[in-house]
Amino acid sequence: MSDLSILPIQALAEILGGGSLFVYGIKLMSEGLQKLAGNRFRALLEKVLSSRISAALLGTCLASLLQSSSSASILVVGFLNAGLISLYQALAVFLGTALGATVAVQFIAFQPAGLALFVVFFGVLLKYLFKRRYLVNTGELLLGAGLLFLGLRILESGLSPISHSAILQSINDYVFAWHISSVLFGALVTLLVQSPSAATGIVIALCGSGLITFNESVGMVLGCNLGTAFIAQIAAISGTVISRRAAFVNLIINFTAVLLGILLYPLLVKAVIYFSPMQQQFTADIITSAEFAPPRAYLPRMIANAHTIFSLFMVCLFLPMIGFLARAVKLSEKTGTFSAHTEFLDARVLNTPTIATLQAKNEIVRMSAIASAMYDDLEHLLYRSDARGVRRIYEAEDTLDTLHGQISNFLVLLSRKEVDPENNLRIPLLLQLSQEIEQFGDLNLKFLSYLQKKKSEKMHFSLHAMTDLKRLAAAVGDIAGMLKSLMEDQPDLLQRINDLKSKVEEIREIALQGHVKRMKTGHCTVESGFLYNDMVTTMVSLSECSSNIVRVGSSIK
């Protein structure tokens, strides 16, 4: 077998093996860095997210630590879903993660390939011969770095012979004739490897092997940022409304930045040359040439600089606009869309009990409005199946759980301060309100499970049964609707509650009597009968819970 026939197989093995080593090395480095730094992100969030600049710096640190801005973006989506950060903070952190990826890219660009095997040796030595956790984690970090550089060298070696193929060269000229093609390819590579720093490393290998030109590699670098935004968008699909909106705004920011990068492409290339240490090596004629091709030794550093300059450009351009973008998103939200992030609580005012108590009251009023909207969606499901309504109910339940925990923690901290007698009496009532509103949400979710069971098991209720159930739900809705005006002055409030509860009890008796008759005459199966009884009981529990909330709320002045 000739060398020519062996070469493609050997090159393929080097490409696959080198690429795998490279990606695995980044993963090992990420794990080693995280273990060394410790998992303190949540505590850090609470301390440094007070301004857009500190939030962006946190995103930078987060992406640098994880060695991946896409992983950092996914974490940001998780923080949003949990209600740990606001939309404003999330957008700033998203921008910071784009800048943080440049740290990993600059590290990759150093390419100390000659030292790679020594680094692997010391990494294995520390990881497997020592017991101290710090040394083991350091060994994992070094092992990952060594494998990263070794894999990149093997990958370039495998790509070099392929770059001389006339067929591939013609395909390359056709595919990357426009900058947008390079951008889309960079975004695709980022989606595949789930890391913009890894994708940029692959771009460096492609350019170093001669398979793509420097100009094409810059376009791919722009696409890496766009790919990260797509990853965050995908991660937010199953999240809350606020996380989906934040991911979408982040995608728009990245798309706009990439579009500007394409329009200002010559300026970007000149900026890369100007800020590179080897810019003195290039003459004016070479710099202004459309086919600018720096020597191979300079390529990694210049590609990394292109990534850094573009990320800095994006942060400087959009960070001042974060407040406007966050407000625009909030104004576009539909009624019934609520954030799990508290809007009124501020731990800095705990030493001023009067203000702190007022903040807690406002947050509980907002919480009760979410609960009331949740019931509206639930009642609507009795008339028509609605997948969006079901999703809103689950989101509202998660929001109520999160707010209940945050409000309770806030009130407990407040109770430990020197509180005046009047506010001291309000704190237990506010705690009770928060607990009962959260319980109201649980009952909504319980009734929803009955509706889903009825649909999935194809249970049939008679026309009279459904009519009674809808009448009962409407009567309960009259009480639940009062949650929207919790703690407001309402004339004859207690009398209205008693009248509505009497109406609920009357409808319940009618519904159960009809239910018993249908069971006796065989118009209702045993399984359907049990489910119907559970649904009526849960509706009555919802009326009791909502009336208790209104009563307690009316007692707080």
- Let me know the largest β-sheet: none
Low-confidence region ranges: 1-7
Radius of gyration (Å)? 30 Å
Beta-strand content bin: under 5%
Strand element count: 0
Give a description of the structure:
- The N and C termini lie far apart (92 Å).
- Helix content is 79%, strand content 0%.
- The model is unreliable at 1-7 (pLDDT under 50).
- The chain has 22 helices and no strands.
- It is mainly alpha-helical and 557 residues long.
Quick recap of the structure?
The chain contains 22 helices and no strands. By secondary structure, the protein is mostly helical.
Core attributes:
79% helix; disordered N terminus; mainly alpha; 557 residues; 22 helices
